[in-house]
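can u pls check wat happens w/ iron/sulfur cluster
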Amino acid sequence: MANSENLIARRAGFQTALHAWYRAHHRKLPWRDTPSLYKTVVSEFMLQQTQVATVLPYFNRWLRELPDFVALAAAPETKVMKLWEGLGYYSRARNLHKLAQAYIAAPAKPRTPAEWRELPGIGPYTAAAITSISFGEPAAVVDGNVVRILARLVGEGRLFRDGTEAVKHFTPLADALVIGSNPGEHNQAMMELGATVCLRANPMCLVCPVAGFCAARAAGTPDKFPRLKPKVIEQKAVARVWCEHHGRLLLRLGHAKAKRLAGLHELPETSDLGIKPGAKSLLAVKRRTITRFAITESIYVVKPTAALLKRIARDAALEWVPLKQLDQVTLSGPHKRWIGDLLDGRG
Ligand code: SF4
């Protein structure tokens, strides 16, 4: 607490050092070069849970195909999902699409964080980022990066249950540090500091513009902050089917109301077909992590018997997709990669 008050008392000097560094050293990014509200919104959606380097080609392609809110609002959902394919967390794409439609339809355009939070897919972080950058609203962004910086600056020793609790704890301090600054620049400077200098492992304190304000640095213990309870990772096993018939591959389409896989294709699970393949038919074992689950997916080759073909024909979610037209359906990121690898591997 004392350290927080001390930092707030030195706010003007902190902002001057941070902002001067940001102006001189920030990475040139397409949503920063010629900023617009639309570019800020798209980039903020894409950057959730995703690295800048991964986002860049998606962002550029998206802007070419869907250059503004009007184009996005009018686009068919299949096009939106296809442009997002491989970026993961597909609810972001669906929400961004709905947001554009709501934004175009709104008679009075949203401006404050509270108004933006009424729109699909907008939480406190995104609302603060969009409104501070586009309208100069004095709202601080607080995510894992900002929590890490603030916890180190003030040497916060409390053990947090999870990231959500830590974000809640640090939001008042983050808000206090925005006061009197250009809020958009301040938030972007904090994000940039977290992404390029105050790294999770081996923070670069020697080149940090706010090292003189940092309690953890003074104590020589940046690595000890923030203190978060370790996540419990659950192991899960899934058995998948690789079934081909007349040059077509069997895929399953996620239900429109499914939280994660709506509109996305994946290899079906053995339970979708009511079968238990033997170990001899194992084709590949793949692994992926989704939130707190470490998932092992075993893929089995299954022959399309007459009985199986009948069952498949009765299930509207199961689709035969010609191998040569796989790029015309939207696959989940890992399945796109795995299917590509398995097809490449057989030459
Ligand atoms: Fe992070 Fe080091 Fe800067 Fe402190 S001095 S804010 S630990 S990079």
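Residues 86 and 336 are 8 Å apart (CA to CA).
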